[in-house]
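Hi team,

Filling in the usual template for the complex we talked about on Friday. All components are listed, including any nucleic acid strands or ligand strings, so the model treats them as one assembly.

SUBMITTER: L.P.
PURPOSE: interface mapping
COMPONENTS: two
RESIDUES: 693
SEQUENCES:
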Amino acid sequence: MRRPRKREGYALKRKVIVQNEVGLHARPAKNLVSELNKYTSDVYIEKDGYRVNAKSIIGVLTLAAVKGTELMVIAEGEDAEEVLDVVERMFKECLGESPQVNQ
Amino acid sequence: MRTLVGIGASPGIVIGKAYVVHSESFRIFPRRLTDEEVEGEIDRFKEAVAASRQEILVVKEAFLEKGHSPDLTEIFDTHIHLLEDPVLTDETIRRVREEKRNVEFIFSQNVEAIEERFSSVPDEYLRQRLQDIQAVSGRILRKLLRKERQSLSHLSEKVVLIAHDLTPAETASMDKENVLAFATDVGGRTSHMAIMAKALEIPAVVGVQTVTQYVKNDDIVIVDGLQGTVIVAPDEQMLNEYQVRRERYLESERLLTQLKDLPAQTVDGHIVTLSANIDLPEEIGSAVGHGASGIGLFRTEFLFLNRTVPPSEDEQTETYSQAARLVSPDPITIRSLDIGGDKLLGSDVRYQEVNPFMGCRAIRFCLAHPEIFKPQLRAILRATAHGRVRLIVPMVTSLSELRRAKAMLDEARDELRAEGIPFDPEMPVGVMIETPSAVIIADVLAQEVDFFSIGTNDLIQYALAVDRVNERIAHLYEPTHPGILRMLKLVVDASRKAGVSLSICGEIAGDLPLALVLVGLGVRELSMAAAAIPEVKKLIRSVSLKDIERLASRLLELSTGEDVRAEIQRTIAQLVPNHKDYELFTWART
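RESULT (copied from the run log):
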């Protein structure tokens, strides 16, 4: 699947913090990845200089980010701004895992 | 001869010839591609991914068609997601274009990099996901190399499979005719292999660690799925012993058909209720098949393990309701969560305790975490609409604890009522008697519960201060200790006086001589592993209550565990003529 051409130099960054009690585990990672795959931008996450593809569950899991970890999200592409807004909101909302267990 | 110890994942005893599924080590050499070859190489990769996906789907469908629960197939969906992960696929394709080398080489380099990254992840739970990635990437690689893994579905003779690991797809597609049993290096009691082996009724031992090192093709091996051992190249004596054990096991399976519909009734007409302990709704079929009248203990920990977020109330409601329906019209006793934070969250360092056995576990953990406890209570209440559900609370040490738990239950009831959700307001509530303090205050607890169940495994450990996993003192774990017998007597008396029902759900309920002692002491419900039910039933049907009551009162007079065992042995030799068939005191053998 070919993505539309990216505009040169259109890489945006934003810091987020992992708020999930148990860190960036399988389920939150899956929620993040499946949401990001709806967008055309390339998205990466960096932790201490280690960069992974944020559209890959394998990539995101290898971050092994525990609660409180600061991550840099980088988006490149037409909808980069929108992607960062979505990512920021998702991290604030614990990536779809509400802190209350009872739904 | 060598005895290897693992985890009994699926019951049964098998003696057979080994067939070793070799761990894969592929030799892959780099090869330069010409510009013309590149796209063809990429197509070959895409085909391999598509074919792998197709295979997984086929296995999943076939497994579902055999009538297995969809819960068991969730793992296949996970694998399909992983197959399509860009780090595996897009990254491989990109690098083939860029580096112009054969795709097997690039792909395996890629997987190695992922493995390396994962192996340094400090989190045990996440590290385990690596097994899923390896299962998937191995499948793709085999397709690329046109090397089929030794097929397990078309074995031509009856074998015991020995493997480092089996993928869920391999386990699910095993042919029960030819796979007598299996043993693996890795895996735990709740691994996919274990769950599927149980569903398929193939005896299995997992987590042996070194089984592939010690077993060669055609070695004779014994797989004991009951005790979790694998014996390689047994000597004659061991072989004979296991032939006897195997006969006994098969005999007990045969007893099933004879005794299944008969009550566990003593010759003088007293009926004992035999029920089963289970971890999963999937085990109910086998429990009923073994003649269980109800489920005396449904442990709910399984639902909470291997995941980072507790199951939702709805998910729990579904599981408990399904179980209640399957057991109906017999009752099912659901035990609220009996673990601590260490196990629940797998990785979280903050929950590690120096002494978890005396730490924040079971009811203590639940009371400290209403966000976990309340949804479970609501789910259990909601399940009462689907069968005869009873709730039991573990690890209670004081009346205050019980009251706090019941207050939480009242809140849950009020909420459900307000929300108009149906449930049985009269659901019986009981406590596990498994701490010495609960034994001593049993008369007090009895005033505020509907029933007791004695959890002898924990009670013995706490009362004798013995950790049975500690080899140096394991011999001190002694169910026949006079202190234990007196404790049991105390609880029996308290329950009778207050008119609350009493059952026993520890391992000793399924231990033949001790089962008799328990009935003699006045217990009328024994809950045990389903496989033990037929023999216990047969034994109870061969004695009179009067005789075993006399035995019990004699035992209460004795001063040492040895004396107690000798007296039991002597009496059983008199009461049950073919007593040699019975393996006395199974706990003492392990």
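MY TAKE: Strands of chain A lie at 11-17, 42-47, 50-53, 70-76. The radius of gyration of chain A is 13 Å.

Thanks, L.
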